[in-house]
């Protein structure tokens, strides 16, 4: 039970091979860097700095975009296209109005993306194949059981 409390990413069994150790440490470093990158934007006429790993998704209608984080939601005046260009590759456009952090996707169901907390976001028919392909690839690349 204590192992779950440490939020372990992977287990290595002795004797540890150097190549395997380096591979696991490399993945941990990539995940840490990806999730601790700072995203900045303007919110209520102030510069806002968010940990990119805490951003669950963006939704947008017109020039009003909402940034949904693990703690709260911010409304910013920009387009989703502009925000998408600023973000790393683990954010995926699932609909004209949604940009989702794949770290928070639990599953894909029909024409919906189900987030970790059970919230469902509509996925466009046009984007469905791309979303399924990219999410499957993302899960395969970030599974520590390899």
Could you describe the 3D structure shown?
The protein has helices at residues 2-5, 18-35, 80-86, 128-141; strands at residues 38-43, 46-51, 55-61, 64-69, 73-77, 91-95, 98-101, 105-109, 112-115, 120-122. The two termini are 23 Å apart. The protein is built from four helices and ten strands, in the order H-H-E-E-E-E-E-H-E-E-E-E-E-H.
**Count of alpha and pi helical runs:** 4
For the terminal residues, how far apart are their CA atoms?
Answer: 23 Å
Helix content: 25-40%
Whole-number average pLDDT? 83
Order of helices and strands: HHEEEEEHEEEEEH
Sheet with most strands: 5 strands, antiparallel
Strand content: 25-35%
Query: How many DSSP-defined strands?
Result: 10
Rg over alpha carbons: 17 Å
Large-scale geometry: globular
Low-confidence stretches: none
The assigned structural class equals alpha+beta
**Sheet with most strands: strand arrangement:** 5-4-3-7-6
Provide the fold topology:
Elements: H1 2-5, H2 18-35, E1 38-43, E2 46-51, E3 55-61, E4 64-69, E5 73-77, H3 80-86, E6 91-95, E7 98-101, E8 105-109, E9 112-115, E10 120-122, H4 128-141
Antiparallel strand pairs: 1-2, 3-4, 3-7, 4-5, 6-7, 8-9, 9-10
